[in-house]
Amino acid sequence: MPRHVADDLLEVLVHAGVTRIYGLVGDSLNAFGDAVRRSGGAAKGGIDWVHVHNEEGAAFAASAEAQLTGRLAVCAGGCGPGNTHLIQGVLDAHRSGAPVLALASHIPSRQIGTGYFQETKPEALFAQASYYCEMISQPSQVTRLARGAIQAAVGKRGAGVIVIPGDVLTEHSAEPVPASVTVTGRPRPAPSEQEVAELAQRIQAAGRIAIFGGIGCTDARADVLELARRLNAPVGHSLRGKDVLQYDNPFDVGMTGLLGYGACYKSLHDADLVLFLGTDFPYDDFLPVKNNVQVDIDPARLGRRVPLAQGIAADLGLTLRALLPHLEQRRDRSFLDDMLRAHERAVSHSVDTYSAHVSSKKPIHPEYLAAVIDEVADEDAVFTADTGMCCTWTARYITPNGRRRLLGSWVHGSMANALPMAIGAQVCSPGRQVVSLSGDGGLAMLLGELLTAKTHRLPVKVVVFNNSSLGMVRLEMLAAGDPPFETDHDHVDFAAIAAGAGFFTRRVTEPGDVRDAAQAVFCHDGPALLDVVTTPDATEVPSHIPPEDAKGFALSLGKMVLDGGVGEVANIARLNVRNIPRP
Ligand SMILES: Cc1ncc(C[n+]2csc(CCOP(=O)(O)OP(=O)(O)O)c2C)c(N)n1
Ligand SMILES: [Mg+2]
User: Fold this and answer.
1) Is the pLDDT of residue 385 over 70?
2) Ligand 1 atom at minimum distance from 472 CA
């Protein structure tokens, strides 16, 4: 069999450690698909093809794999509509900092620019969705451009895109591709001595100090907690930072923002100095405007959410380790203890509200379902959450512990992400429990990915919060004082649909049946779906409501509970208060 450019591309990927590609074959991509087939699959040193039912699903799956493993993951789509389906998930991966390579095949090269069937301009389409996007227009480019895209994805943490016309893939290639290493390390900029000294001075001059951390704390968790200990500083976090900062944290004061709870908002606003560490939390309405310091590896993020007294563009761990020797242990715990007590009061009040009412209410309250899922899921489960109210339930009820992982479309906020992300998570971690917390709207949007899970016998657990509504949008309308418009629809029996796709299913309408059904679904060793009919009227109430929104809420709902439930968080808060040292 003569060698083709498609084989060269495959070889570059194999050299970079790629063992699978999520995608949907067709037309311009077929020559590459054939090279993958001939490679014999990962078991024989080649590459596996994971067939999906929508290219968007391929990109979300690759994104989840990249986020879980930290390594390059690959997706592929054919020309025109294949590309435009792919782009949603690629953009999502890119904005999430997931190292993903997208192979976007293109129409025949001699037709480019003629308005040909399925023609798009992929380099322009993917430009905003990637760090690198180049077209291979002749065979001699393939090796270097493919390596360039891979290197950009793994080095800069985002998407790299290779556009390649189908006819170029089928051209003959004379030589095997020489091996070349993929450099996975990233630059770790250190702060200057002056920057560290200035920060130490600011800290010494400040009375009450609070910390707000995000996903950028991942590799510096121990240093952040040591800083909090040294300064007696309460620690709040963003949703992406929850996975990293909430568990085993005696300084935890919860989350701020629309999904927020506890005393995070209060801590940040009552502090004299706030340290923003590894976070690009976008909702500036919830952030303090004075005396802020920010440390982030990316200089472009400094000061774009809040005005800064000082910003340091450096690796967080290196910065904190340079700073800590300058700081003495503070004796005064009064601010920290006040905030821990305020946090405990806020979350305990809401838990009482929650447990007194929602465990027996019908239609079932989504808070109750989320709390049960938190209990029955494995200690090292991966949760993927759909955009919509599932984000709220995940933020408030799914308890991180350092071994669980929470994945979502946290930055781009795309619907329908949970199921395809669960598929990618399950493919790359076969023995691990993977739970998709799906909205009925989200599931309906990429429903075909149920077939992907079934085709590959992936034992994902899909939990559907089936409120017959675009619940979050419904809430937005109520908050604006408008009646819900085009948000609600007839009941759908997702259990029946999934059963038709070959899933093990349970459908639940009675609160008393939730736990048993969840256990049955979670114990099943194949693809399984739990369809729970929930109320669309559950309210998500932030820990701080701007006055104009509060008016809308009041108008629409008449009355409301001023805190949503928060599940296990209350136990952690109580424990932290109990552990406050006696004078
Ligand atoms: C692709 C896309 N379209 C529209 C939106 C706007 N949007 C955000 S949440 C949401 C409703 C989600 O409904 P569902 O999945 O049923 O979850 P629920 O909020 O009801 O729990 C919509 C329409 C979006 N974020 N993404
Ligand atoms: Mg819904």
Assistant:
1) yes
2) 19
Quote the Cα angle for 284-288-292, to 5°: 105
Residue 126: closest CA among 177, 151, 174, 163:
163
Give residue 499 CA to ligand 2 midpoint distance, Å. 20
Ligand in nearest proximity to the CA of 412: 1
Residue 184, domain member (yes or no): no
Question: Cα separation of 4 and 1, whole Å?
Answer: 9
CATH number at residue 514: 3.40.50.970
Q: What are phi and psi of 156, to 5 degrees?
A: -100, -5
Element (H, E) at 132: strand 132-135
* Radius of gyration for the chain, computed over Cα atoms and rounded to the nearest angstrom: 25
pLDDT at 548: 61
Strand order in the sheet with 405-408: 405-408, 382-385, 434-439, 461-466, 528-533, 504-508
What type of residue sits at position 383?
F
Beta strands in 193-345 (DSSP E): 209-213, 235-237, 252-255, 273-277, 292-296, 310-313
Contact at 8 Å (CB) between 539 and 560?
yes
DSSP code string of 150-201: HHHHHHHTSEEEEEEEHHHHTSB--SPPPP---------PPPPHHHHHHHHH
What is the CATH classification number for the domain harbouring 235? 3.40.50.1220
**Residue keyed to tokens 């200089």:** 299
Mean pLDDT calculated for residue range 481-490? 88
Confidence of residue 181 (pLDDT cuts 50, 70, 90): very high
- Take residue 88 and report the two structure tokens written for it: 């949603």
Are 114 and 45 members of one domain?
yes
Q: Amino acid identity, residue 408?
A: G
Kindly state whether residue 143 falls inside one of the protein's structural domains: yes
Q: What is the mean pLDDT of the chain?
A: 92
Task: Tell me the average pLDDT across 420-435.
Answer: 98
CA distances to 28, 36, 87, 224, 491 from 82, in Å:
10, 18, 9, 44, 32
Question: Which is nearest to 500 in space by CA: 461, 464, 447?
Answer: 447
Token readout for 46 is 């080649």
Q: Is the CB of 469 under 6 A from ligand 1?
A: yes
- Rounded distance from Cα 428 to ligand 1 centre (Å): 27
User: What pLDDT does residue 437 have?
Assistant: 98
Pairing state between β 20-23 and 48-51 = parallel
Q: How far apart are the first and last CA of the chain?
A: 81
Domain region containing 446: 357-579
472 lines ligand 1 (CB under 6 A): yes
Q: Is the CB of 414 under 6 A from ligand 1?
A: yes
Ligand 1 pocket test, candidate residues 415, 443, 466, most atoms within 8 A of CB: 415
Let me know whether 376 and 305 are in one domain. no
